[in-house]
Design brief:
The chain has 417 residues and is an alpha/beta fold. Helices cover 37% and strands 20% of the residues. The strands form two sheets. An eight-stranded mixed sheet has the order 10-9-8-11-12-13-14-15, sandwiched between helices. Helix 4 (39-51) runs parallel beside helix 5 (65-74), helix 4 packs parallel to helix 7 and helix 10 (307-320) packs across helix 12 (354-363).
Amino acid sequence: MGGRATRFSERLDRQLRIPGWRQELLSQARVGVVGEGDLLTALVVTGAAALGLNRLTVVAPALEPRLLTAARRLNPDFSLAHLEGWCTHPAVARVFAGCQVLVDLSRYGLATKILVEAGRRAGVPVVRALITGSPEALEARFLTCVPGRETRELAEVVPGFSFPRPAPEDAALALILAGLALEEVKNRLMGRAAPGPLVVLPAANRAAAPGKPLLIIGAGALGNMVALGLVWSGLDRLVVMDPDAIETTNLNRQILFYDAVGQSKALTLARRLQELYGAEAEGRVEAYTAATDLAPYAAVFDCVDNFETRVILSEACRRQGTILVSGGAGVEAGQVVVYHPAEGGPTPAELLGLQEIVAARERQEARRTREACVYQPDPAVIMTNLIIGGLMVRAGRQALAGLPPPPVFYERGRLAA
């Protein structure tokens, strides 16, 4: 039993470091999900397993088997009750008895009405995440319905048709919505949530596959999400660069590394993309430096976790005329900034003031050296990485289509351009 507790703590170490974090509330909670056989449902289920939400009841016609395998292998304590079918009768909602939060990922109105009524009767919130619209004009909609505090906005997240039917998907929106849904579930279970506004986010243009591959620098949590989102978007010629090896503490958010502790991040991520999705992916076990040639790539996705590399990369992309999609993710906040050579303007490092931060750190180098023995890794969770990863994929598609997007900032469930 002691060994199991040790593994539990080690895998979830990065989120257990968050001040006030209550993992026991997550691991003991029951969460009900109504979904479909789509990316959004699969991402919520896999993300829940990585987060340590151990008791899920899911009503959906199918669950994507590749991500379901990842969910089960990421978290040996993960318990999934899957009712294969659609939520088209109030009796189906009985399977959610005892759930503290309900998550509605459906795209037909009857399920939403059944779940909202079930939430009202049980006195539990319903977290609603929806991809809606036509293939040419998709958008994400997100809202939490709290019993006794229903608003007119609820009508904005009820589909116009009652029963299941084929519906388009969008990989970037699925990543963003999965992150928002899991963040809201976590907050509700920990008693931290306040009713939030309706979130509406249009999808980006679907860019044609460029003639050159895309470079992902950093194969950690953001790298996992960006790589998946690009492959699901049909942009599957990728080179992944990272010098590091996988650690057990990565597994609360780096979902494709479930059985590869000790192996190369770059090589493992590339291999998984090849095996699972037939991607043309190459891994390189090396760090990005100022000498790295960017000419072979149509765009660079900056998924690194240190400011020094991000400054060097920003300067190199401007010098070499390469599109740069730069993302950063913390525990509850993050940002995506794009540099497009055709537009010019400030680089991500300049816009975010990273040079000044790096300069200040250099002035404190002696102190940091003395304190190295008490270094503490930064906390990290899967939700912000899902959201920022999805926003990076969305921004990258826009940039590759010739429409450079504005910076996007995320903080505590809210998005702002």
